Amino acid sequence: MTRRRADETLLVCSSGHADPAERAAMGALVNAVRRDAPSVDVHDVLVDQLHPDSSWPPVRVAVPLALTDGTDVSAALAVAGRHDPALRIARSLGPDWALAEICVQRLIEAGARKDDTIVLGVAGSHDQTAIDGFSRAARLVSAVWGGPVHIGSVGGRDTPLTDAVDIARAHSRRVVVASYLLTHGRFADKLRHCGADLATAPLLDGGAPDQRLVSLVLTRFHQALGAVAPAF
Question: Which CATH class is domain 97-199?
Answer without folding.
Answer: alpha beta
